[in-house]
Design a protein that fits this description.
α3 crosses α4. α4 links the parallel β11 and β12. The chain is built from six helices and 20 strands. It has a five-stranded parallel β-sheet with strand order 9-16-10-11-12, covered by helices on one side. It has two domains: 163 residues, FAD/NAD(P)-binding domain (3-Layer(bba) Sandwich); 124 residues, FAD/NAD(P)-binding domain (3-Layer(bba) Sandwich), CATH 3.50.50.60. It is of the alpha/beta class. The mean pLDDT is 91. Bound molecules: flavin-adenine dinucleotide (FAD). Flavin-adenine dinucleotide binds next to β1, α1 and α6. Flavin-adenine dinucleotide (FAD) binds next to β1, α1 and α6.
Length: 299
Amino acid sequence: MAALKACVVEAAAIPGGQCETLYPRKRMYGVPGFQDIVARDYISVLANQCLPHATATLFGQRVNRVSRIGAREFKIDTDQESVVSRFLILAIGIGDTVLCVPENILINIDNTSDFIQHYCSSVNLFAGKRVVIAGGGDSAIDFAIELLMIAKQVILVHRRSEFSCEPSKLRIVNELAEAENISLKLDYDILELEESAIRRCVRIRRKKDINIEEITIDHVIFCYGFSVKPPLICGLEEMGIQTNDFPVKVNIETMETLINGCYAIGDAITYPGKKKNVVPCLFEADRAVRAIRDKVVRS
Ligand SMILES: Cc1cc2nc3c(=O)[nH]c(=O)nc-3n(C[C@H](O)[C@H](O)[C@H](O)COP(=O)(O)OP(=O)(O)OC[C@H]3O[C@@H](n4cnc5c(N)ncnc54)[C@H](O)[C@@H]3O)c2cc1C
């Protein structure tokens, strides 16, 4: 729409970033216009809308190095080819993500067992099952709400006395607990997971209590987040953005970084009031494109 030529370079084989890799089957919240859509379907809508306009799409190619050609252009070296561009928009997210595994829990299960799951698992696996969801952030709450219609029983176990999710979700979860659709175990530690030929169980204990409670379940879903290795693209340091500068500071009016002609958007950036959600990412993308267009028109 801005009459610019754009090349998309993405390390993964398919578009979607975190939505595709971390929670493809989870319902998306806070995306206007879509009351009930899971992340993968939402990405598909976005991709169908925008990718036909890209001049080139290089999926399955990781950007390894970025350098300057003269004062006005960038050379972007992927692991397969090079692209030259006047402007560069970094939309590289939070970096490589590794799902956190719980510590201090005694786990007596087979390595091949599907007892332990993470929030990126397919919800269909939990149809008719008794499920413990461990965690107290947005993803734990999202998953609990998601599974209500499909699972036989949902028990939310959190090690603190309060959830750290958005207020609207907190209201929903409290209403569900009052209606006994969901069991809340707040201030509880998970001590042990055990699996035998006939049954799977989780042992939990309320903080400062000595009694251990044992619950028979089919799956435990850990929503303990993920650890992140910061995005690494060689060459950015030489131009002025160090690896430990991520998330990158930008000029909020243009999304331009400290590097002239290099813009950044999405979870890779920070500014006062920045929220890591999809809608802000789209707003930032629009701002960056308009700023680039203004520069092109002026030059
Ligand atoms: C569990 C969970 C649930 C969420 N639920 C919601 C929700 O309901 N609603 C909502 O609005 N938001 C939600 N979010 C947040 C939302 O997913 C993020 O804000 C959004 O995905 C950020 O998009 P992004 O493009 O900035 O980064 P990412 O989604 O992280 O995408 C970055 C992309 O850059 C690629 N990349 C990185 N480095 C390179 C490189 N060197 N070369 C080539 N490619 C590279 C990566 O492969 C990746 O595809 C959720 C997040 C999580 C973790």
